[in-house]
Amino acid sequence: MVRPQGSGRRTIDRLARKGFGLGAALPFILALAILATLFLRFLPILQEKSLLELLSGQVWKPLKGEFGFLPFILGTIWVTVIAMVLAVPPCLFCAIYLAEYARPTTRTVVKPFLDLLAAIPSVVYGVWGMLIIVPMVQNHLGPALDRFLGFLPFFAKTNPTGFSLLAGGIVLAVMVAPFIIAVTYEVIGTVPNGQREAALALGATRWQAIRSAVLPPTTPGIAAGIVLGSSRALGETMAVLMVVGNVVQVPKSIFDAAYPLPALIANNYGEMMSIPLYDAALMGAAFILALIVLLFNILSTMVLRRYKKRYQS
Amino acid sequence: MKPRHIEEAAMRVLMFLSVLVVAGSLGAILITILVKGLPALSWEMVSQSPKGGFYLGKEGGILNAIVGSFYLAFGATILALLFALPIALYLQAYARNSVRADLVRLAMDVLWGIPSIVYGAFGFIIMMFLGIRASLLGGIIVLALLELPIMTRAIDEVIRLTPFDIEAASFALGATRFETATRVVVRQMLPGIITGILLAFGRAIGDAASVLFVAGYTDRMPTSLLRPVASLPLAVFFQLGTPYPEVQQRAYASALVLTVIVLVISLSSRWISNRLSRNIVK
């Protein structure tokens, strides 16, 4: 330090602490501002109709002032559940393979490949879905599943096109896969090697060692990763919008077209200003979506935090 | 064979199949985009704006979307960096491992997970309130919000590796926290900053749902901060939806260009951060 000792440097330090601290408050302010703004825009419709009425209403006719969110909420839940059912088992196996079985060389090739694919924009997944998955559902998967499982309630092929919940679910499953694999891989990595070696020394096979020493302590972390993955799937807009059909109805089969919440918001923002309460309904949809995703996120992040700390120490 | 060995073998088969399915579907995406995009790509495609009517014209290319996307992502990245740097410095130099720092990190992680359509809706409300129409400026601001958590966390993850000894040495020489932060810690940040910038840039350039509301779309080249601007993801989305094969070609070309940009950014961030990490003290 060339400058003489004095109160100047201290003052700068004190000011900087205040300034930086203010900056650090920004994420909180931002999160609160998003929720508050959306809620304020949601209020006008809440003053006319009860929340229960909105959430359970099945009719969506903005011109007649009827705003039932149920088809959209159910569409969101269906497409997310289908995606997670399809994605979770292979992703867990993949992560276990990469963490426990793969040779270091395999790992150094496959891991970066997966990370790379996590960066692909959602419209690109949507293009793939429209070109490959939708025709596949229409021509192959649909007829086959209908023939063999059509007697089950959720598998009847009711929709002649491939634009369906199933197509949306498949595209979403592929989209969240790199993400779920990365989280699970990291969580599994927090188990100390001694645990595995102890199991192996007792004569366990590798899978037995994984089942008895690796999976039990990591189950909450893996569950948190899955929740985090579903919150990604819940909010995913473009890829789903492009393949899911966008028909307002309560879905009854995986082949039905549906209309998830994010698609509703994205498709109608242009015309919403001209119809009374329409913008309130759409911003309400965004508020509900944000609230659910926030809860999911906070919960799973807090669980994963614990593992991360262990990982770093 | 004992049951447990059968179990082991079965699990190995399942794992093998899973890796095949996951890697296969992800590979299929790249192949689809290449097969569809390569024939559509030509010099005219990347050097001209669309001609002949509002995104229905059959002539011209996607230059407007390429330039628009770069404007949006560059602007947003610079804006986000202005806020991400001080926050990351604060976390490392002032708050370190305090409860407050943990809370800020939690908030960042949570913001990271908020869907981009929600950012778009939020930005739209704010812009209506301020009386700004869909424009480049609106797009830059909303994308900057989207980038902020990604960038901050990326920088934070790297500077957290700074050994406390370095800071302690600086304090021992009589430096204040501010001086330590801006002259010592900041030198450790370079790989983190580069990774953060590239990660955030890649996310911003590919995001469609947030700019849908706030940046609008146009066939023209971007000329002003206050005019609507085209972007690659929306070029894919809008042009794929038209019934004209010529226009759809532009969508495929846009998808390929976008994918290549994102992959190049992702690869180079990996490479650069590896190179630069050699120069910092761990």
Q: Major β-sheet of chain A, in short?
A: 2 strands, antiparallel
Structural class of chain B: mainly alpha
CATH topology of the largest domain in chain B: MetI-like fold
Sequence stretches where pLDDT stays below 50 over 5 or more residues of chain A = none
Ranges of chain B where pLDDT stays below 50 over 5 or more residues in a row are none
From the 3D coordinates, which CATH architecture of the largest domain in chain B would you assign? Answer: Orthogonal Bundle
Instruction: Count every beta strand of chain B, where a strand is a DSSP E run of 2 or more residues.
Output: 0
Instruction: Please report the distance between the alpha carbons of the first and last residues of chain A.
Output: 35 Å
Instruction: Just name the CATH architecture of chain A.
Output: Orthogonal Bundle
Number of helices of chain B: 12
Question: How much beta of chain A, percentage-wise?
Answer: under 5%
CATH topology (level 3) name of chain A: MetI-like fold
Structural class of chain A: mainly alpha
Mean pLDDT of chain A: 87
Q: What is the H/E string of chain A?
A: HHHEEHHHHHHHHH
From the spread of the alpha carbons, the general shape of chain A counts as flat
Q: Can you give a write-up of this model?
A:
The complex is a heterodimer of chains A (313) and B (282). With 313 residues, chain A is mainly α. Chain A has one domain (48-312): MetI-like fold. Chain A has helices at 7-24, 26-46, 51-56, 70-101, 104-118, 122-149, 165-188, 193-201, 206-235, 238-243, 261-268, 278-312, and strands spanning 60-61, 66-67. In chain A, a hairpin with a 4-residue loop joins β1 (60-61) and β2. The longest helix of chain A is centred in the last third of the chain and has 35 residues, at 278-312. The two termini of chain A are 35 Å apart. The relative contact order of chain A is 0.15. By secondary structure, chain B is mainly α. Chain B has twelve helices and no strands. In chain B, α4 crosses α6 (136-159) and α7 runs antiparallel to α8 (177-188). The longest helix of chain B has 38 residues, at 3-40. Classes of the chains: A mainly alpha (313), B mainly alpha (282).
